[in-house]
Amino acid sequence: MADIIQLLPDHVANQIAAGEVVQRPASVVKELLENAIDAEATAIKLIIKDAGKTLVQVIDNGKGMSVTDARLSFERHATSKIKSADDLFQLNTKGFRGEALASIAAIAHVELKTKQENEDVGTSILIEGSTVNCQEVVVTPKGTSIAVKNLFFNIPARRNFLKSNAVETRHIIDEFHRVALAHPNISFVMFHNGSETFNLPESNYRQRIVNIFGTKTIEKLVPVDEDTEVLKISGFVGKPEFAKKTRGEQFFFVNNRFIKSAYLNHAIGSAFEGLLKDGAHASYFLNLTVNPQTIDINIHPTKTEIKFDDEHTLYAILRSSVKHSLGQFNIAPVLDFERDANLDTPYSYQQKGTPSVEVDRNFNPFQDKQIPGKQTTAFKNQTTANWDSLYVGLESKGTKTQQDFSEVHFESDNKNESIFDKDNQVEQKQSTYQFHNKYIISTIKSGLLLIDQHRAHQRVLYEDFLKNMTIKEAMSQQLLFPLQLHFSPQEIEIINQLKTDLEHTGFIFQTIKGELVEISGVPVSVPESEVSIILEQLISDVENEVPNSNFSATDLLAKSLAKSLAIKTGQSLTIIEQEHLVNSLFACKEPNVSPTNRATFITMSVDELDRKFV
Ligand code: ADP
Ligand code: MG
Question: What distance in angstroms lies between residue 320's CA and the mean position of ligand 1's atoms?
């Protein structure tokens, strides 16, 4: 029998290795940024196109490579960072496997330009799918530029496996944050599709955090500092009252390397015990410095996991120093988060506490035809601000007003008529009752109907928003004075991604610049005073949802807006409001469940009731 075992050709081996190192554009970002840091750069520029699917480029002013090194850098296991296995225990660099560039070059089109300080000219190399197509002498500034184009061009399956641009961009920004937070002494800029998304000058740690997460972060940070023999801790934790529902702002760095550790995260959680609202997560930005010989970072190729020699001690020190900081610094609320919106809101047409001032919020001197005006005034006496939102679907039809609501026919009207007990003469006066300001009771032919008002209204709003986003002609309520809201750059990025869909629901963005968003119009259903809270909720929902594979911006937006705007449990409703909610619910395509798939109503048949009375 002939021998059948063969050594894999290098380019095949590289492709296989690439699968481990490069999962998505964000992996390339991480590897290139880390190489730039290892090269002692003081200024690093990241350029992204199409969420990294078309281009990831990192330009640094580091030490560059010689001609030979430039060519060698693409060989597998070629590294300048360790020479022997012993060095693995003294690591001061990010990279050490010598795998990244070889892997990336196996699955993309790579252009390298590099020059060392004392040289007159540098080297340029073009390499595609591990094949060097061109190597020449070029004039180029000191440092290295690596452009990675068309990632996974030769592995279509991998390319198709990539998530939406929104999701891939989030992963890239996460990596960028991690590297930028670990190195405040290095300046970073990031461009996405030609526009500058981050500009982080060299600064101290606190300033770096603020530059990334927005000026409003300043007041949230409590410093943590501890210096023990085994562990040095420096950094900040977020004040408990600013804790968010997302885990977004949780960063551990061990010897300047971002790591994930559920165990150490738990230590922080237990230091915050009793201080956080349900479901809220503490934010933290903590640098741990330990002796490199007491950790092992070599257990995973993407290197965010780490093994400590003495985890228990680290846990105890971390927990007690965070506790100490929280106790030492006054952690009482400085600013009530709920009221933040009003501070940001110059004019609130909805304010209930000012009875002497009557403002028609639909009045707009710049608009001749006040289409939505009539609709919202008709029910003025019976409705609360939130209640207007029930009529969103009708308003989008443009011609109907609330006065002639009774004439509006829903697609499913016929079906409803058979469900509801119209023949029952007694019920004609009042066909619904509200119960505990939570449920609406109505009768149907076969028995009783119990509707959860909050979930039912979410369903109604959700379908309305989805429809508006599809037909793209939602009504806007123009604001006399544009709202100015402040967000962190990361939040701005999310708003930019959702901008088109938000516009279809009725939002009008005047400017989105730096940390400032100016809004000159909002959906008719959205009270101006709640815009800030609604957008915060939306951003938090997006951040929570991104890791899920079935992320759809439109759906998520509709869900989030519906959740924020739906009438709440505890809100009392007039009979007309109750009836309208019931009618609107059963006009929905899927009245049975809320947007998050929970029952909106239950029925109880006469038979069931009879049985209870035996
Ligand atoms: P590793 O970082 O694990 O050593 P890489 O494949 O990422 O492996 O890089 C291979 C080698 O190429 C590095 O060891 C380094 O010598 C060189 N190199 C890569 N990027 C740069 C850069 N931006 N500036 C200077 N040298 C670099
Ligand atoms: Mg590297």
Answer: 39
